[in-house]
């Protein structure tokens, strides 16, 4: 294992996906990043920094929803045929993920959303339309392999980069026990469908809760440097349900 690997090896790809969506919204509205953020009631520097600098996070679902809702509010009354087709195509896959929230904030967007959806496939499976289950480290009764998250205590909008991953879930940090690596309110995006090749930070599914840490070795035994408690743990493969890579991070308020 490459111990120098970025712990969020897929983060750059997720950031690219999010920036692509934001650029599409900028094209459709004719606004700059600052202008779009300001119109959506966000601090302009929040979006400017993300769009123009190397940062260690992607935009939160709450921020993306605010931007999407404002975009479709500004586009109200404009037929799809008058909009930039490339920007519409780039934005379309995110519509089912945020549609319910958009309609709550901007009900007048319903005709335009329906027109975009009817104009062609948006490239999302039915499973991807569901919200993302959110669990805690202590959550019980979760069967990740079977996709059974009925006992997940929370739900969150599914980010576009997990749209086609029905086994994906988020792990919420409820306190500061894993600081400074993770803070209270952070959500770790976890993808059991992806391999551990090159993974650094992982979630261990113990069957009775989850452990978070950096992966130190795999095989018949899985060695993980856990963050809470801070210790080197060796898990017998036969005694755990799985080890899943952390593929993204949503910081509270970002």
If you had to describe this structure to a student in words, what would you say it looks like?
This protein has 254 residues and is α+β, with helices and mostly antiparallel strands. Helix 1 packs parallel to helix 4. It has two domains: 11-124, no CATH class; 127-250, Umud Fragment, subunit A, CATH 2.10.109.10. It has a nine-stranded mixed beta sheet, with no helix packed on it. The protein has helices at 11-29, 33-39, 44-52, 61-74, 85-91, 95-105, 110-118; strands at 132-135, 154-156, 169-172, 187-190, 201-205, 210-217, 221-227, 230-236, 242-250. It contains seven helices and nine strands.
Short description:
The protein is an alpha+beta fold and 254 residues long. The chain has helices at residues 11-29, 33-39, 44-52, 61-74, 85-91, 95-105, 110-118, and strands at residues 132-135, 154-156, 169-172, 187-190, 201-205, 210-217, 221-227, 230-236, 242-250. It has 2 domains: 11-124, no CATH class; 127-250, Umud Fragment, subunit A (Ribbon), CATH 2.10.109.10.
Please outline the helices and strands.
Elements: H1 11-29, H2 33-39, H3 44-52, H4 61-74, H5 85-91, H6 95-105, H7 110-118, E1 132-135, E2 154-156, E3 169-172, E4 187-190, E5 201-205, E6 210-217, E7 221-227, E8 230-236, E9 242-250
Helix pairs in contact: 1-4, 1-5, 2-3, 4-6
């Amino acid at each position: 294992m490459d111990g120098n690997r970025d712990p969020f090896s897929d983060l750059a790809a997720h950031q690219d996906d999010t920036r692509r969506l934001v650029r599409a919204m900028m094209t459709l509205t004719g606004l700059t990043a600052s202008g779009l953020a300001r119109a959506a009631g966000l601090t302009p520097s929040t979006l400017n920094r993300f769009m123009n600098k190397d940062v260690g996070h992607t935009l939160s679902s709450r921020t993306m929803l605010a931007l999407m809702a404002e975009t479709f509010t500004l586009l109200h009354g404009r037929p799809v045929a008058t909009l930039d087709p490339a920007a519409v195509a780039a934005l379309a896959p995110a519509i089912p993920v945020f549609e319910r929230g958009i309609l709550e904030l901007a009900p007048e967007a319903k005709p335009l959303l329906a027109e975009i959806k009817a104009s062609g496939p948006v490239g999302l499976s039915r499973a991807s339309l569901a919200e993302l289950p959110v669990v805690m480290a202590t959550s019980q009764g979760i069967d990740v392999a079977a996709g059974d998250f009925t006992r997940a205590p929370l739900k969150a909008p599914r980010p576009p980069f997990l749209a086609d991953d029905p086994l994906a879930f988020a792990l919420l940090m409820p306190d500061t026990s894993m600081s400074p690596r993770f803070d209270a309110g952070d959500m770790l995006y976890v993808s059991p469908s992806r391999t551990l090749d090159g993974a650094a930070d992982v979630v261990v599914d113990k069957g009775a809760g989850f452990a978070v840490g950096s992966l130190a070795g795999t095989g018949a035994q899985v060695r993980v440097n856990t963050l809470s408690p801070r210790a080197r743990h060796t898990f017998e493969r036969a005694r755990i349900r799985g080890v899943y890579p952390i593929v993204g991070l949503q910081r509270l308020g970002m």
